[in-house]
Amino acid sequence: MNPSDDWVRWGDHWQRQPTVDADRLRRRVQRKRRQMQVVLGFECCAALFAIGQVLHLLLDPGLGLRWKVWAGLALLLVAASVYLSLRVRRGTWQATADGMPELLRLTAARARAGIRLAWLNIASIPLLIAFTLLVAAPWLVPSRWRHDPALEHLLLLQVEINGVVLVPLLVFFVVYIRRQRRRLRHVEALLRDYAE
Fold it and tell me: Are 57 and 67 in contact (CB under 8 A)?
C-alpha cells in the first residue's frame, strides 16, 4: 500500500466535501424563522377576521337558513385550515442542534412543510368557491340577478375582487412550490454529500 495514494484519496475526499457557509446557513435559518412567525401572525389575523365575519352572518336574524349553513361550514373550514396549518409546521420552528447536518435537515423540513401548506391553500380555494357557488346557485340564475341591480352589482363585485385576489394567489403558490422543490433538491444533495 502506497502512503501517497492514501493522501491523494484523502485529498480528493476532502475536496468533495460540501462547501456550505455555516454562518450564512444559520442566519438564513433564523431569518426563515422570523418570516414564519410573521406569516403565522398574518394567518391568525386573517382567521380571526374571517371568524368575525362568519359569526356576524350566523347571528344576523335577517339571513336565510341557506347562508347560515354556509357560514357554519365556513367557520369549520377556517378552524380546520388553522389546525392543519399549525400541524404542518410542527417540528420546523427551531433546530435541535447547531451542527450543519441538523441545520440542513431543518431547512429540508421547512421546505417540505412549505410545499404542503401551499398545496393545502391551493386545494382549499376551489373547495370554498365550489361550496359558495352551490349555496348561491339560486341567486346566480341570470333571470334573477339581471332584474336586481343591487344583486348584479354584488355578484360582479365579488367576481372582480376574487379574481384579482385569487388568481395571483394561485400563481404565487405554484411559483412558491417550484422554488421550495428546487431548494429541497439542493439541500438533500448537500445532506447526501455530508453522509458520504
Answer: yes
